[in-house]
Amino acid sequence: MKKLASRLRRRRYLLPALLVLPAAWLPTQLFYDGFESGTIDSNKWKPSIHPTGLGWASAMQPTFGARQGSKAMKVTMNKDPQGQPGDKQRVEHALKQNGIIHFTDFNQQYGYHFSVYVPSDWEPDIQDTISQWFAPKDVDPITGQKLDGPRGPAMSLKLKAVDEGSNNWVHYWELVLKWDDNPATTVNPDSFTRIVLWTENASSDLGRWVDFEVYLKWDWNPNGAGYVKMYRDGQVVVDYNGPTGFHDDKGPYYKCGLYKYTWHDPSANPNVTSRTLYFDRVILNEEPRPWP
Q1: Are 107 and 93 spatial neighbours (Cβ–Cβ below 8 Å)?
Q2: How much is the pLDDT for 20?
Q3: Which of 61, 70, 142, 281 is the most exposed place for a label (fewest CB within 10 A)?
């Protein structure tokens, strides 16, 4: 009996020891906001609202409960009654570190964590972009002229409507990645590659908190080590290895909120005149090793 008791004591202390990860494997947290301060901290977020007066964001206590703690960020945007086809509207907040926008580094591994609540009464529309990994265009150091043409974000997460037949419009998630190994992306959209990494029915995700984890490495080299791995509620939905992003001086920065560039198109849903959703528990880590 004494020998058995001794073995059990040893095993009791062995298990926690096995669960301790080497320090070199632990992520470094670069950013965290759970909005518990009750404000949108200007040292953590850079707002972009257009047109002004038609959108806003606030840290508040949702009636349905926050994802963590008691508060979340509420984002609301109303349709511009004077808008014309091609007009863009946005209420977005870019992630900052030490008071300035956080541009990522190429060939560095990052992990993004954020939770999104899309209300159950969300009407289907062409598309709504809710997260962007936006790539700033390179600028000529002498003339100040932008060297890249129109190209949009390096990666974006969207909610869109898909007609499954007989005018049955259904909510879908979509994650889109772009990459270009040319030093300057031309005006011609065919100069870069666009890949739909994930699309899936989102109907069951409305009216509840959904957790996203996005692990990635920006590397535009076709023979490089770029990758994107995304989890939704702990389940892998994207496992991509290949080139990511544009051949730029700076890596993309992250922003979340609402962005609609099709709101005033003839094919847009005329019944959608306002949008509201919520974000909580936004985290950015530097990851020291590839995510499994």
Answers
A1: no
A2: 56
A3: 142
